[in-house]
């Protein structure tokens, strides 16, 4: 794929590779900086420092096209909302519930050991997807986490650069918004055509996809992908949407498990990112002066003084932890008849069974959140029908 080998030593190999990496992260505007300034420094220094220096007023820099068809004047910091004569603003349709500081910090990487063949298939598919993503986004061997301990490892010998992180996160978040929408859509259609209740699943699934899209939009305000990455996103969505569609029709249970494992990886990834920021491996993002985009402040209602990149990724990680717990739990339920425990009100005295998805990486078992129905009493033997007598 496009960024093979870029991570080893960008300037040592060739400035063309630096350009390629920059474009993959949507940094075509900075191409002259990448070529002329970055060497022997790394791409992140040249590109991100410019963003830091002038987040709202980037000078126009003529760029020659190599891997990007995105011209400089098309690059913007934000997607400006359309100004209309009457509308003042359009707030988020799904208000984010918010997290306490304690909740943000209590999120930990976790893993649900596969218990069925379906679980095992889902788990292996996710691991395969992770391997392919590492390959596609040019993550070098020394930058990969310990592959022998895939359920716990969040540390690599060498950190990623800001540009590499942006490539990876934008690609992954564009994919992550698909499953919730597919599942919600299919359950919606099922309810319509079978004339049956859905029991509260659709809203949670659609909200999940909305939340993932907000992750993507937030990252997009930091870097707009070049045409190559946009093409990758287009192709990946085509494949992934159809795969999710068929998979959910065949086995919603396995599909929710697959998403649960995908979200485990997301929590791992963001935990690693937060760690690298805290260690100062990403100097520009570690800088408390690097404020997060306005769209993030509005959506998560980030309080004053809590608007650093570390804070932003703590919120996103907590969201991923919720998706992880929700999908593992939904996979454990009876798909057609159980209510969604995350939006349900519980009977008096049973409130303790209401789940908190972020707290349980492996999800809740059905017995914990729905309860065990008492075995139905054996019905009294009915009198044999006249027909039965005939055959007796
Ligand atoms: Fe996400
Ligand atoms: Fe997620």
UniProtKB/TrEMBL annotation:
Which intervals of the chain are annotated as region Disordered? 370-392
The membrane-spanning stretches of this chain are: none
Compartment list = Mitochondrion inner membrane
Question: Which parts form a coiled-coil structure per UniProt?
Answer: none
- UniProt remark on cofactor binding: Binds 2 iron ions per subunit.
For this protein, the Enzyme Commission number is 1.-.-.-
* Required co-factors: Fe cation
Name the predominant localization.
Answer: mitochondrion
Membrane topology of the entry: Multi-pass membrane protein
Q: Which InterPro entries does the UniProt record give?
A: AOX, AOX_sf
Keywords in alphabetical order: Electron transport, Iron, Membrane, Metal-binding, Oxidoreductase, Respiratory chain, Transmembrane, Transmembrane helix, Transport
Query: Could you tell me which Pfam families the record lists for this protein?
Result: AOX
Protein role: Catalyzes cyanide-resistant oxygen consumption. May increase respiration when the cytochrome respiratory pathway is restricted, or in response to low temperatures.
**Sequence similarity:** Belongs to the alternative oxidase family.
Q: What is this protein called?
A: Alternative oxidase
Question: From which organism does this entry originate?
Answer: Humicola insolens
């Amino acid at each position: 794929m496009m960024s093979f080998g870029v991570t080893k030593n960008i300037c040592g190999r060739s400035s063309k590779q630096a350009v390629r990496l920059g474009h993959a992260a949507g940094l075509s505007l900075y191409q002259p900086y990448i070529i002329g300034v970055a060497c022997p420094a790394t791409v992140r220094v040249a590109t991100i420092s410019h963003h830091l220096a002038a987040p709202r007023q980037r000078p126009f820099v003529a760029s020659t096209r190599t891997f990007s068809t995105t011209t400089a004047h098309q690059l913007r910091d934000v997607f400006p909302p359309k100004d209309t004569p009457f509308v003042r603003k359009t707030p988020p349709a799904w208000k984010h519930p918010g997290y306490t500081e304690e909740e943000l910090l209590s999120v930990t990487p976790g893993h649900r050991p596969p218990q069925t063949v379906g679980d095992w298939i889902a788990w292996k598919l996710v691991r395969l997807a992770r391997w392919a993503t590492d390959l596609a986004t040019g993550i070098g061997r020394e930058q990969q986490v310990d592959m022998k301990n895939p359920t716990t490892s969040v540390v690599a010998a060498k950190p990623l650069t800001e540009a590499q992180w942006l490539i990876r996160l934008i690609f992954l978040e564009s994919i992550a918004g698909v499953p919730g929408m597919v599942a919600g859509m299919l359950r919606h259609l099922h309810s319509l055509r079978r004339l049956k209740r859905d029991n509260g699943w659709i809203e949670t699934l659609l909200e999940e996809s909305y939340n993932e899209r907000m992750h993507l939009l937030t990252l997009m305000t930091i870097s707009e992908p070049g045409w190559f990455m946009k093409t990758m996103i287009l192709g990946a969505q085509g494949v992934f949407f159809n795969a999710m569609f068929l998979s959910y029709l065949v086995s919603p249970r396995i599909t929710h498990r697959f998403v649960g494992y995908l979200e485990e990886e997301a929590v791992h990834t963001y935990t690693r990112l937060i760690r690298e920021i805290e260690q100062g491996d990403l100097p520009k993002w570690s800088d408390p002066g690097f404020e997060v985009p306005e769209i993030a402040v509005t959506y998560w209602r980030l309080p004053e003084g809590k608007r650093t990149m570390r804070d932003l990724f703590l919120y996103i990680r907590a969201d991923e932890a919720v998706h992880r717990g929700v999908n593992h739990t939904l996979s454990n339920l009876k798909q057609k008849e159980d209510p969604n425990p995350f939006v349900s009100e519980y009977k008096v005295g049973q409130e303790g069974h209401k789940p908190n998805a972020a707290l349980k990486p492996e999800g809740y078992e059905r017995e914990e959140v729905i309860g065990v129905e008492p075995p139905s009493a054996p019905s009294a033997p009915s009198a044999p029908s006249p027909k039965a007598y005939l055959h007796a």
